[in-house]
Amino acid sequence: MSFELDILHAPPTAILTGELTIMTLGDLQDDLFGLLNFAIVVLDVSQLEELDSCGAQLIALLQQEANQQSKRLRIRTGEESAAQLALSQLGLLPMLTIAGAKDGYQ
């Protein structure tokens, strides 16, 4: 698992690779909630190889918290990725603000 934050480009983008599961949540939770320090940020989960229900719930909670704080968190899932599939199967995609490929936002 890897968390990489690019703050040199606008908007700042955090890229998760590997897995976001119950086993890795403890290591990533502080980094992920640290993204709420930005007014606008993209969380790229398109490169995740595994996303379980606990990881998906953390993404949904992060989105909810960003919305409550009037922050603009965009989630980049990638087409046909493990993250897209998991979030869709769990019914969480409609509550997320998905980053579009064309202009960076949808």
Automatic annotation (TrEMBL):
PROSITE patterns: STAS. Residues 16-106 form the STAS domain. Gene3D superfamilies: STAS domain. It holds the Pfam family STAS_2. This is STAS domain-containing protein.
